[in-house]
Structure formats: structure tokens, C-alpha cells
Design a protein that fits this description.
alpha+beta, 7 strands, globular
Length: 181
């Protein structure tokens, strides 16, 4: 379960980089405290499915945009499986939140928003990266002790992108399917 947030963030950043600087970002401790309000995940075997809902690069010619969209669409409908150990489950979402706020590959990431209300989550993260790369990722969904469902919107801006911008929307669902093998 806590890997779902990590997988979500890693997928977004691996596919898109990261964004605009926030005026008043939340501290890692504030975000971890909010994440602590989510149910602790149950240990076990989990399956995660990804669906690409939208992918746009407005500056690309239509045929190139379609080719890129079909390449990105290759992640859609794919599923992956992982084992969440009892030790990992005890940590809840704290480790995932720490990894997300640390960024990757030279990215400086900050949470602008991270709100938990019962089993629902709303978050916005901005990152700045090399060569003027910026992006914003919003995450909305729900988490229970044995499943998560998250929709993620990513907007990336950089001079190297044709037209200067790329937008992507994905849905990731993860559910416990049994005990670890």
C-alpha cells in the first residue's frame, strides 16, 4: 500500500520530471502527520493496475503526438505485483512520503497540499529540475487498509518539450490479493 504512493510518484517523475516552486510548501513532518491519518496497510501480496487516461503534447505535430501517446499507452492496462511485508506495513505511508518529497534525478520537490479526510487523499506536489524543467503533479484518491485508488494529473513545462508543455493523466488502482508467496 505505501508503495502505491511511491509507485505513483516514481511513475509520474520517471515519465515527466517535476515542477513550479510553491510559495508556502508543507514540511515533510506536516505531510507525514497527515499521511498518518490514513489506515495502516495490511501486509500481503498486492496487485497494481495503471490506466493512461490522457496524454497531450500540444506543440507536437498530430502524427508525432499520436505516436508518443501510443508509446505512453503501453503502460495502460499493465499490472504489477509486490509483497508488502509486516515491517513495511507498520511504517504506513511515512517512508513513501519521505521518498516523494526528496525527489529524484536532481529534482527539488515540495508538497503544496497534502490533505487526508477519512480514507480520501488530495495532494499537490511541485518540482523544479535541471535545464528549467518544471512540473506539477496532483493526486486524488482513496486508501483503505487493503486497497488504494489514485488519479494523478501531471503537467510538465520545459524548453526541450515541443510547444513547451506536456500533460498526462493516469489512474492507478492497487489491491491486496492475498498473502505473500
Amino acid at each position: 500500500m505505501h508503495r502505491t504512493l511511491t509507485v505513483t510518484a516514481i511513475a509520474a517523475f520517471a515519465l515527466s520530471g517535476c515542477g513550479d516552486q510553491a510559495a508556502t510548501p508543507k514540511t515533510a513532518d506536516e505531510v507525514i502527520a497527515e499521511a498518518g491519518e490514513l489506515e495502516q496497510p495490511q501486509p500481503g501480496q498486492y496487485e497494481t493496475k495503471v490506466e493512461l487516461l490522457a496524454f497531450e503534447v500540444p506543440g507536437l505535430p498530430p502524427e508525432q503526438a499520436e505516436k508518443m501517446k501510443s508509446m505512453m499507452g503501453g503502460i495502460s492496462g499493465k499490472s504489477s505485483s509486490y509483497c508488502l511485508t509486516p515491517e513495511e506495513a507498520k511504517k504506513g505511508f511515512e517512508e513513501s512520503v519521505r521518498k516523494m518529497s526528496q525527489g529524484q534525478g536532481g529534482l527539488d520537490c515540495k508538497f503544496v497540499e497534502f490533505e487526508v479526510d477519512g480514507g480520501t487523499l488530495a495532494a499537490e506536489m511541485t518540482c523544479a529540475g535541471p535545464q528549467g524543467l518544471t512540473s506539477t503533479m496532483t493526486l486524488a484518491g482513496s486508501a483503505t487498509s487493503n486497497s488504494t485508488s489514485m488519479t494523478m494529473d501531471v503537467r510538465q513545462k520545459a524548453a526541450m518539450i515541443p510547444g513547451g508543455e506536456m500533460r498526462m493523466k493516469m489512474k492507478m488502482d492497487s489491491k491486496r490479493v492475498g498473502d505473500c508467496a
